[in-house]
Structures are given as structure tokens and as C-alpha cells.
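Worked example 2:
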Amino acid sequence: MPDNHSRVSSRSGQGILLALFLLILTAWSIWLFGQRIYWLTPLASRHGADIDRVFNITLVITGVLFILMQLGLAALVLRFRHRGGDTALPAKRRSEHRFALIAGALIFGVDITLFALGESEWFKAWGPAPENSAAVEALASQFMWHFRYAGPDGKFGKTSAALIAPDNPVGLDDKDPAGKDDIVAANELHLEAGRPVRIALRSKDVIHSFYLPNHRVKQDVVPGMAIEVWFVPEREGQYEIACNQLCGMFHHRMRGALVVEKRQSLETWLAGMAAQ
């Protein structure tokens, strides 16, 4: 039978190993967090900074609460752990009430704070678009994006789902003069840097989701509805357009390109598309 000294030494060794493991795990976690490998994509829109701020505040609050709860749990486990023949001690009713009151007030305060932050940014993102906004229509289908621009007349022509065909992907009505100069592009959206844009989203078949990770824009596209989103792209470059809703077997192929460029480059591209 091992004596008390051996048992104490064994427990001390286990404690040292556990502390070393936790130290290594903590250091690795801090390094991984610093590398930002799994962090947000680089921001490229004006309103995205507000969304990132709400996200970071939420992450900090929930992270602090998680650490406090785990420390409390560890303290309770150590305080009331099994010790030979000792029986569990009943908690005092006053302590229970005090704990419930503090925890409830803390959770209520956190909920109100996060709700206020989220709602304020939601109303900004979903409020009316500026009057000088550009207008684009987007039609989602399995498994492509089609984007339509008004021509030189500045008016969109009428469309109908019954008119959609391989050579008419958005269902343009050829009897409507306003649609004669409309420009349609597949999987390629060009926008002017610094100018607000309104995008009307429609779906041909199932529920899709219009997702621009770099611009913090994500909106489900529902059949039978025209849902409008607006934002201000600021940084020039090429970005990914993804479908963030499982929309069928080849959902992974439903990717497009967003090109944010200067006005002159945008007009040159539109003129080239119109000449095709």
C-alpha cells in the first residue's frame, strides 16, 4: 500500500502536468488568435465597420462571461469535491437567491446592451438608400447569378418569369422599349467605388443567399419576392460573391465576382457589354 507521501507526490505530479498542458494550450490559442487565420475577411465597405464593431463587442462580452462561468464552475468543483466519507453540503437559501439575482441582472444587462447595438446597426443597414444610389437587379438561379443594369435611358425594362429562357436568362420583355438597352451579365457584378448601390434580389427557383463577405452583406433571396439591399463599396478590387444558402447539389459552384472600380472603368465595361 502506498503511503500518504507517495499519494501526495503523485497528485503533485498530475497537477504539474495539468498546469503545463493548460499553459501550452493557452499560448497556442493566443498565437492562433494573433495570426487571425480564422478571422473576418478584409473590410471593403463603409457600413461594414459598424457591423464589425458590434461583432467584436459581442465576442468580448460573451468571452468574458464564458471565462467567469468556467472559473466559477472550477471553484465550485474544488470547494465541494468528494473528500472521503464527507457528504454533500446543502446550499443556503439566501446564497441561492443572491446568486440568481446577480446572474439574472448580469444576463439581462448583456441582452439589453447587445440588442441595442444590433438594432441600431440594423436600422442603419436597412434604412432608405441615398438618392444618388446606383441601381442593379440580381437574379439567382441554380447555379448562377445574373445581374442587370439599366441602359442609357436609366430605366429597367419589364421582366416576366414566363419569359426566362437560355437566351433570355432574366426574362426580359422584348415588347417593352425600356428594356432594349438593358445590360445583363452572368456571375459578374461591377460597381463604382464610393457610390451607394441598391441591389434588388430575386430568385428563379429556390431560396439562395446573396453573400459578400468583404462587404458584410448577406441577404436570403426568396422566390416570388424582390428584396432590396444597399451598401457603399469603398475599396477597389475584385471580391467573391457567394451563395450562403444550400440551394442544391452544385451549390458550391454558385460563385461570382464583384469588381469595384473607378467610374471611368465601370462606364467602359458597361459600354463593352452593351456592344455585345
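The helical segments are 4-35, 48-79, 93-126, 263-275. The two ends are 91 Å apart (CA to CA).
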